[in-house]
Amino acid sequence: xPATERRAVEAAIATAEQSTSAEFVAxxxxxxxxxxxxxxxxxxxxxLVVPGAxxxxxxxxxxxxxTGIQCxxxxxxxxxxxLSPLAAWLAPRxxxxxxxxxxxxxxxxxxxxxxxxxxxxxxx
Length: 124
Hints:
It is a single chain. This protein is mainly alpha-helical. It has a domain at 34-91. It contains five helices and no strands.
């Protein structure tokens, strides 16, 4: 996050905290959680489609070679989706929002905000 954006966020939080007794905590994280279901689905689709295309190209390919291609495609596609932001981009909006809310709650409890004076908190 660039320094100018960070200062703008800090200023917005300070302004909001002046008008209430609440304490605001902002967290900027690169990735909240992995979207394994998206990666798995993409890898399965790739593992089913690519060998079919190879069989159209060479119908006499051996079963062992076709299975090897299928395994390799699955591994490569799964790794690409897990190690890049592709899975997050393709994940449903509701799932992404659910994971962000879960992460915010974990941070809330980890910082002991539930044990404060009023024991109240809002996570949006």
